[in-house]
Amino acid sequence: MDAIHLAEEHMRALLVPSGSIDLSPVEHLLRQLGVTPTRARDDEAAITAFHLSPYPLVLVGMDEAGDRIVLVRALRACPRGTQASIVLVARPEQVEKLQPLLEAGADDFLLLPLDEASATLRLRLAERRSAERPQPLPDDFELDGLCAVLLRESPVPTCITTREGSAFVEVNDACTRLFGYSREEMLWRTAKDLNLWETPLEPDRLGALFQEQGVLRGVESRVRSKDGEMHHVLVYSGIAEYAGTPHVVTMFPDLTERKQMQARLLLSDRMASVGTLAAGVAHEINNPLAYVTANLGYAHEELVRLLERGAAAPPDSAPASHPLKAVCVALGEALDGADRVQTIVGDLKTFSRDTQEPLQAVDVKKVLDRTLNLASGEIRHRAKLVKEYGEDVPLVRGNDSRLGQVFLNLLVNAAQAIPSDGDAEHHEIRVRTRLVSPGKVSVEVSDTGAGIAPELMGRIFDPFFTTKPPGVGTGLGLSICHNLIHAMGGEMHVQSDLGRGTTFQVLLPSATTAMEQAGPVSRPTVNSAGEPRGRVLVIDDEPMLCTAVERILRPHHDVVYTTLAAEVLPRLEAGEHFDLILCDLMMPKMNGMDFHAALQRLRPELTGRVIFLTGGAFTAQAKTFLERVPNRRVEKPFNARALLAVAREVIATVS
Predict the structure, then answer these.
(1) Distance (Å, rounded) from C-alpha 533 to C-alpha 554?
(2) Of the ranges 158-162, 348-352, 385-389, 438-442, which one carries the lowest mean pLDDT score?
(3) What's the pLDDT score for residue 379?
(4) 320 vs 241, which has greater pLDDT?
(5) What angle, 0 to 180 degrees and rounded to 10, lies between the N-to-C axes of helices 43-52 and 69-77?
(6) Residue 66: CB partners within 8 Å, gap ≥ 6?
(7) Residue 589 in contact with residue 564, Cβ under 8 Å?
(8) Residue 507: closest CA among 625, 650, 364
(9) What kind and span of H or E run contains 309?
(10) 634: helix, coil or strand?
(11) Which CA distances in Å does 413 have to 431, 447, 475, 631?
(12) pTM exceeding the 0.90 threshold for the entire prediction
């Protein structure tokens, strides 16, 4: 066939051979087309030759592994590498391996054995592609005047790229700070070469928008810096003349800090909403749970008393075989179940409390036990739990809700670091408390999970940094925990061995002052022998709770109850006597706080006899009220024995 000349005699091509591809047919065709081919000995020699005298056309033979990405990127990184056309030469069975190389910067490919017509057409297109790409700037070219000042001094990351190939021809200092590369590292390389976009599809999305609109005005995107950190940016792009040739000017205002602040505010609002919801749910659960627990306790104790007297047992049968014995056991199990629900609700209330509460003496073992109850669902299918509590560990100076939040985060992280493959017997999560010095308590959470890479250890407390896959973590948990512990005067440390596990250590100051060590005032119990019989008023909006309390107290005291606090005020104003008033704190119409204020006006001598029944003070007003008044309170749900004990104490004191 007739030769189709691609260019004049001075058209040159660089051939980079491989052990598995014979480039002789390609070299023969190039000579037929008037192109002067030059063979490089190996990859290193090819890069050196290209640096000395750039070639408009480079043909690269595929190797057996199909891995020529390093060579392609190295050629593109050369000063004139973006102008060259890079064509791969491969066998048909290697076609599937070409896609990554085309994405890395190769322009086209030829298949062996050569189809001369097809190969000639592809080489003509490669020659045209090289000729149409803009010429590189002269080595001595410099911006001057207003453009130089605007580019150099602008605080907004700005770059100038070629229209074809998108190679960087100029970047300002703000741009190098954003991406973490030096100016020399970025020039004549592309964003794809440096892997600057979050996903490989992002430049295609932005390119389609740019082609459709002619400009980009504040399109939100995410870019990756040299150290792998992600940044939220807005992308502004347009065409401008640079060195006499149209180029693309792009600005990347960094939104990362603004996004982080927005995320913190959203998280704060969400935590506040969840806390309020949790407190409300706990209150609603505690009301019915209170009379369930009270009635179960009453029935169980009455049945035990009946069996002990032997009144229901036939003379010829042993107590263990009597049907009522099984009923008694069933009631005991029901009580255990109610106690478990009570514990869960108590845990929920702990995490709903206001984190601005003042620091006080806290038992870390109790906080850990509550937290472990909440985290048990995450742990039990992944690892064995080992608790190692030191006996000499004192109370610490802190806040139980904040510590609960920190410990829960550490436990969930420990569980998620271990694969959920059902092999829990071969993994362990260990929780340890110990006194490390006279004024420091250590709480450690260790796992046998994947561990943390050494290069990431310095960043794990940074906001929004996470090693979890997208959608699993926000990257805020450890940062928030770190801040909470520091606010309590403590420290947080981490040790990790990649592939073997991680240990987080929380160091907290022990509670040393008399005020911090002071706990609830203990009151001596009154012996039941000869105890006085008192008159008790019960006020609660739950009728069944009223009847449960009345059933518990009736054998020992005279009980009057009502579901509306306002109804009892005229009786009190008329002088009716009560030795003890059990009053719910949160009620519709008139609540316990309003009742206490009314009682202060009508019968101030009775205010000290009020015991508040509370299923959770989940409003700021209720919290402030309970902190202000000295009255005793009984947390719902309560058992019969505890209620009798507190009633006995108050009535004995009045008598």
Answers:
(1) 10
(2) 348-352
(3) 85
(4) 241
(5) 10
(6) 90, 94, 97, 98, 101
(7) yes
(8) 364
(9) helix 256-309
(10) strand
(11) 13, 9, 11, 41
(12) no
* Phi, psi of 404, rounded to the nearest 5 degrees: -60, -40
Query: 10 Å Cβ neighbour count for 149?
Result: 11
Name the region of 530 (left: φ>0; alpha: ψ -120 to 50; beta: rest). left
Condensed to tens digits (0 to 9), the pLDDT of residues 365-414 reads: 999 988 888 788 788 888 889 999 988 899 999 988 788 888 988 998 88
- 508, β-bridge pairs: 441
What confidence tens digit (pLDDT) does each residue in 73-122 have?
A: 888 777 777 778 899 999 998 888 888 888 777 889 999 999 999 999 99
Residue that is written with structure tokens 């190797």 in the block: 63
C-alpha 193/C-alpha 82 separation (Å) is 11
**Signed CA dihedral, 48, 49, 52, 55: sign only:** negative
How far apart are the C-alpha atoms of 276 and 197, rounded to whole Å?
A: 40
Residue owning tokens 């009053």: 583
The segment with the largest mean pLDDT, out of 301-310, 556-565, 616-625, is 556-565
For residue 579, count CB atoms less than 10 angstroms from its CB and return exposed for 0-12, middle for 13-18, buried for 19 or more: buried
CB atoms near residue 507 (< 10 Å): 18
Exposed (0-12), middle (13-18) or buried (19+): which is 605, by Cβ within 10 Å? Answer: exposed
DSSP type of residue 190: B
Give the C-alpha separation, 49 to 52, whole Å: 5
